[in-house]
Specification:
Helix content: 40-55%
Shape: globular
Number of domains: 2
Strand content: 5-15%
Structural class: alpha+beta
CATH class of the largest domain: Alpha Beta
Strand order of the largest sheet: 1-2-6-3-5-4
């Protein structure tokens, strides 16, 4: 599943009190039975089409409100980044919504109509004027006021850009994305400004103590190629970025056969296909698939388990333990089992929660798998107090040793987890502007066919599948443990690296 479980525990870590109530278990059980009884078929009703140039178009129609989200998803991100390019996929994202040749052409034509161009103006306008026949009508730029809800994000295995607008402006949104992706200017002044914006993001992250917990875990877990899991990048790589590096990224990854257009909301699929082909149909395909020319690295297995103490001014004790999990395309069955098992453990009445939370050893405990094409991490997260840190770790490893026992979870809990996963997806679809990003994420990391069969494969997940997942990736496997704790708390807790790996 997507990486969401840890954020809730980070929120818990900021609480001043470590006493809070679990949801009522009777209500939980009643809800579970209702979900199992319903057994809704929740396959996502999207349709897709691939243009001759390789661009995939994914449409999820919903006419309940006249709102549309148009997104471009690109298979780019930190998993494509060697050290010298680390963080530059993120910087590229910042440049996407800056000036492009279409906007510049519009400005040039306005200047010409107003009385002509200066010598410098003629130099600046030479390129956009030469592209006039390719760019076509720029009337859509008059709709800018209707297209002012937009953003982009960069993750390990996807970069996405989107506009949300009313349904009558879907064509203009498609044109804006087309011109931004195909005709960027990479203006040097704008580029310098965005470098400082990204440096500001790095500064904000580094001022947050929790940043060091995740960074340490990822750097140690993926020790040979840590940049491939660091979408933010480093101060050094961002400050050394150039517009030539932006064009290098563009030439490798911003091509139709490495991109998808995702449109959700009040649209008809046939209309979207027609509009997309009109705008993107002439976009030239890259001759060689970028992942064949620049293949993903193979993250080597951990040679042994290791624990690390990170001292930061935090109130509670946060502990993360990470394992190398399955990769989509190599062990798909384990990815479904990982999601189901994670949900079994997350339920308030599970044996895991009773042992870790109801016992008073932690204020929060969770385990989850982050679906990835290139070795997704499995993470155990605990929030506890200095006086209970060692006991919490001992209890967690005792539970891990029991994960594959026949009585660790019931058949009802297994079916409940599947039902909850399906119902959560149905709930997420209520806000299509956000669900657009879900589709883009799955398309990039797994391929849309994986997601098309996601719920069917979840429903087929068995106890044997979960036991295989646990034995293959968790029990007795090398792992990394990290504790985020203040200097004062560590003097009391005395957590050791050995404690963090269950020794």
């Amino acid at each position: 599943m997507k990486k969401t479980f840890l954020s809730s525990l980070l929120i818990l870590s900021t609480l001043t009190s470590v006493n809070f109530a679990q949801p009522a278990k009777a209500t939980q059980a009643a809800t579970t039975k209702a979900l199992i009884k319903t057994k809704q078929t929740s396959e996502v009703p999207f349709v897709n089409k691939v243009l001759p140039n390789g661009l995939e178009i994914i449409v999820l129609p919903d006419a309940s409100v006249p709102i549309v989200t148009v997104e471009l998803a690109v298979r780019n991100g930190s998993f494509t980044e060697p050290p010298e390019l680390n963080g530059l996929s993120h910087l590229y994202e910042h440049m996407f919504f800056k000036s492009n040749q279409a906007v510049l052409l519009s400005q040039c034509e306005s200047a010409i109509n107003a009385g002509g161009l200066s010598e410098r103006g003629r130099q600046m306008c030479a390129n956009p004027l030469a592209l006039k026949s390719q760019l076509g009508s720029l009337a859509y730029l008059n709709d800018a006021d209707q297209l002012n809800i937009y953003n982009g994000t960069t993750r390990e295995e996807v970069v996405n850009y989107f506009y949300t607008t009313t349904s009558s402006y879907v064509g203009s949104a498609i044109r804006l994305i087309n011109d931004a992706v195909r005709y960027p200017t990479f203006d040097e002044q704008e580029f310098k400004e965005e470098i400082q914006v990204v440096i500001g993001e790095i500064d904000r992250n580094e001022s947050n103590p929790f940043f060091y917990l995740n960074r340490t875990l990822m750097e140690k877990l993926y020790y040979k190629y840590p940049t491939r899991k660091n979408a933010l990048g480093t101060r050094e790589t961002v400050l050394s970025a150039t517009t030539d590096k932006m064009r290098l990224i563009q030439s490798r990854y911003y091509v139709p056969n490495n991109s998808a257009l995702v449109v959700t909301g009040d649209v008809k699929a046939e209309d979207v296909f027609r509009l997309a082909e009109a705008s993107f149909g002439s976009w030239k395909r890259r001759e060689v698939d970028p992942f064949k020319e620049f293949p993903l690295v193979e993250h080597p297995a951990l040679p042994k388990s290791a624990g690390f103490i990170v001292e930061q001014p935090v109130q509670n004790v946060l502990i993360n333990v990470g394992w190398h999990g399955p990769s989509v395309g190599k062990d798909d069955a384990a990815t479904y089992a990982a999601d189901v098992f994670s949900y079994i453990l997350s339920q308030p009445n599970s044996r895991f929660q009773r042992a870790m939370v109801d016992s008073g050893l932690t204020v929060g405990a969770d385990i989850g798998y982050y679906t990835q094409r290139n070795v997704g991490p499995i993470q155990l997260a605990l929030v506890t107090t200095p006086d209970k840190g060692k006991a919490a770790l001992k209890a967690a490893y005792a539970e891990i040793a029991q994960f594959n026992k026949p009585d660790y979870f019931t058949d009802e809990e297994l079916e409940s987890a599947k039902a909850i996963l399906e119902s959560r997806d149905l709930f997420d679809r209520e806000k299509l502007s956000d669900y657009t990003h879900v589709l883009g994420f799955w398309w990039s990391s797994t391929g849309i066919d994986y997601f098309r069969g996601y719920h069917k494969n979840l429903r087929a997940t068995s106890r044997a599948d979960i036991n295989r997942y646990v034995k293959t990736y968790i029990q007795n496997k090398p792992h990394v443990g990290v504790a985020l704790i203040s200097t004062e708390a560590q003097a009391q807790a005395k957590i050791t690296p050995e404690d963090l790996i269950g020794k």
